[in-house]
Amino acid sequence: MLELRAGALSLEQMRRVFGIPEMRIPINDTFNVVSVPELSVYSRRDRVGVAEFSAFLYEPTTGAPLGAVMPMTGEFRIRSHKLLMIVAWGQQSVEPGERDPGDSWREF
Length: 108
Fold this sequence. Notes:
This protein has strands spanning about 1-20, 25, 35, 40-60, 65-85, 85-95, 105. Strands 1, 4, 5, 6 and 7 form a 5-stranded antiparallel β-sheet that branches. It has a two-stranded antiparallel ribbon with strand order 2-3. Strand 5 and strand 6 form a beta hairpin. The protein is mainly beta.
């Protein structure tokens, strides 16, 4: 039996705006809201996603542990830019982690 475990799943986000950011403005007490779009000269949005997984192998009949794949961590970064609310560009990078998957198996 193989058991997969997620040690970390996260998303971090940061936004910088030179201008007026997107806003929601309440107009009365009954939850009516007006959305104002972003009006910016320049904006930048950074997002970082991190995931960490490990796995354990057990004997199906007895439940005795046979081995484990030690935690593997990966990171994905996205940076996007927008100029005058029209021109957009960005970069992406993937960092698969420091450990070689072949070195992560541990037998009990």
